[in-house]
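Changelog excerpt

This revision adds worked examples to the README so contributors can see how folded entries look when concatenated. The first example is reproduced verbatim below.
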Amino acid sequence: MAGENDNLNPRAARDHGGGLDGAVACYGGPRADWMDLSTGINPHPYEVSGLISSDWAELPDHGTFENLTQAARQFWSVPEGAAILPAPGASAVIARIPALAPQGRVQITTPTYNEHAAAFVAQGWSIQPDTPAEARVIVHPNNPDGRIWTEADANAPLTVIDESFCDVTPEASLIHLAARPGVVVLKSFGKFWGLAGLRLGFAIGQPELIARLNDLTGPWAVSGPALRIGTRALQDVEWAEATRQRLTVETARLDDLLTTKGATLVGGTTLFRLYEVDIAKAWQDRLAQAHIWSRVFPYSQTYLRLGLPPADGWSRLEAAL
């Protein structure tokens, strides 16, 4: 793997999964015919129901926010000394976190999710991939390789613990650190619950830090429908447990399929898998010819990342491979 630090270059295009419109423009076919496996979003989303007219027609009030934060506190076992801020997606919080401390150096070990580095650089920070600094970001589990961090890694005056993919492995969560001074734990709703378009995320940390983030995000940051759906989903513990079991089974199936075709498993979570192949772009191209979109990385010629296909997509993926 070459050029790991490319994903810390603020001048480089910030590569993400998705971008299906670009794939359609390049390879053709109706957009509805495509299967997007380039993201780590659960292909079996939580069922959306029970919305009422006021969710759309009225500004959210304190009670609906309180219902959501209480559901989040219970679901994630948030320590009593930590506060919770709902936000319009974890990315909205990522962009504002660097303003919580004076400009300095931030340690971000690569490869990882590149929006953290972009946010710090945009606010005047410098990136230190491998040396201690005034701030640190750990993506836990890491995207794209699934690396699990430990409590000892949360060692900077400002430490961001991005647990956007941790709901598949709740036993690994570092949420108990959320009440520690300088720690902010991020949670994403869209990935595990499969509702990325809802735009809901959470920042959890010391009340003073969370209050400052709240000031930066402004009032009514989360929509009424997101508040209601998020509250119901976080209270549905049975769905969460059944979903974890289902994702585990389907991940094993994906690993069997890819390794049979010559890929080597590098890591990942049960929402996405990272494989090493001979030429990643060639694999992506072959899948795209069958209107299946996958993820490759600008810093590696051999890394291929795949999410899980929907229930009716397995035979199509196998045929394309």
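The second example, added in the same revision:
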Amino acid sequence: MKKREQMEVQEQKSWFGRNWGWVVPVGGCGCGCIGLILLFVFGIGAAFFGISEMITNATPVEYAIEQASKNKEVLRYLGEPIEKYGIPSGNISINNDEGDVDFLIPISGPSGKGTLIIRGIRTNGEWIYEDLYVRIKETQKEINLLVKEKVLEDI
């Protein structure tokens, strides 16, 4: 009879008592700690890709990619098509019709990789480039893309 009494006294733990180890991080503090972490990570990711997309579609960047894609010497080293890869670095500043750009964009083609370098200013709504060239990664050769273009030294 003692065994029977001991069995009746022993109560099963509640569902929360058995599962608290994963309930608290997932849903215990409002939307859950993991929910807050995911919201933070996705928010940072969305901001990064939004800014990256804005920079990638900036006029100097589009112009530089177009010039690199039309340059026969760049195409000889990198192949065709020329594409952006990786994360661009530098800064671009636009205030109404004025601004400046100082940017490095990793580019690649089927035959190699390089970096597109853009430096210039914007005056009266028009971009004037000081530097616009491709540096080939394998050889460090620099290919000028400013031939017959307005350059800063001419001003």
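Reviewer comment on example two: The longest strand covers residues 98-109. The longest helix spans residues 33-56.
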